[in-house]
Amino acid sequence: MGVVNVTPDSFSDGGQWIDPARAVAHGLELHAEGAGILDIGGESTRPGAEPVDEAEELRRVLPVVEELARAVPQATVSIDTSKARVAEQAIEAGATYVNDVTALGGDPGMAGVVAAAGCQLCLMHMLGSPRTMQQDPTYGDVVAEVAAFLTERAELAIAAGVAPEQIQVDPGIGFGKTEAHNLELLRRLDEIAAIGFPVVVGLSRKSFLGSITGRGDPAARVAASVAGAVLAWERGASVLRVHDVAATVDALKVAAATLAAP
Ligand code: HH2
């Protein structure tokens, strides 16, 4: 899954693709590099980010969704939103995957929109909201709590008419988690996969990688991100949400070839 942020304020690439034509070109490039899913977002979820209203979010994402769905019909176009109306209009414009970082908690209409469309749904765990989530996040057993939350939200989605085959789950690396929480979730990712849904992991360029490697600039965290992506894949992740598609694809090819060797 390649990230296309149509925002002025995303933590790693804010402002780079805010012009729709540039965002589309970036999405095409990520697809050419090997991304099967293009995840288009119009609202930053970085710690402390301010919410964006529906009209502005639609204005940012719709032309990009529409053009990418038209230009690369073989790719899955994903809308990264927690607003039901944005998801609905993006689906009309060609999106077939809804990436909801609030796992249906942000908008009571979301489950119905996804159920009616029959599209894919990613349910992500977050503790609190982007404005507050990094203020002293605390868990007993982070992996057990995240797994229980994702199971409960999947059950909620199914009760609202979403088919189990439509659902994917994501532990939400960096969303209300300390570095230790992120690392434990990655090390024990097999326990999240054991819930029974395909697992999505997004760790690309995130700040815990900067604190481990000493790299303050998110764009300098490519090697760190690739290492994390390979490990997540080895522990059961099915979808890796990344900014640096070409490097990740190469690394995964080598890892897969190695594990497939006699
Ligand atoms: N991370 C971000 C945004 N959306 N969605 C899922 N499913 N999983 C993630 O880990 C995830 C996500 C944050 O990264 P980014 O989009 O690069 O930054 P921003 O939220 O500042 O736009």
Description:
With 262 residues, the chain is an alpha/beta fold. The chain has one domain: TIM Barrel, CATH 3.20.20.20. It is built from ten helices and eight strands. The protein has helices at 20-32, 54-71, 84-92, 110-117, 142-159, 179-187, 189-193, 207-213, 222-234, 245-260; strands at residues 2-5, 37-41, 76-80, 97-100, 120-124, 167-170, 199-201, 237-240. The strands form two sheets. It has a six-stranded parallel beta sheet, with helices on one face. Strands 7-8 form a two-stranded parallel sheet. α1 crosses α2, α3 runs parallel beside α4 and α9 (222-234) packs parallel to α10 (245-260). The radius of gyration is 17 Å and the shape is globular. The two termini are 29 Å apart. The model has no long low-confidence stretch (mean pLDDT 96). Bound molecules: 6-hydroxymethylpterin-diphosphate. 6-hydroxymethylpterin-diphosphate (HH2) binds at residues 3, 5, 7, 10-12, 41, 44-46, 80, 99, 101, 122, 124, 170, 172-173, 200, 202, 241.
Brief write-up:
This protein has a single domain, classed as TIM Barrel (Alpha-Beta Barrel). The model has no long low-confidence stretch (mean pLDDT 96).
**Major beta sheet summary:** 6 strands, parallel
Helix content: 40-55%
Stretches where pLDDT is under 50 for at least 5 consecutive residues are none
Mean pLDDT: 96
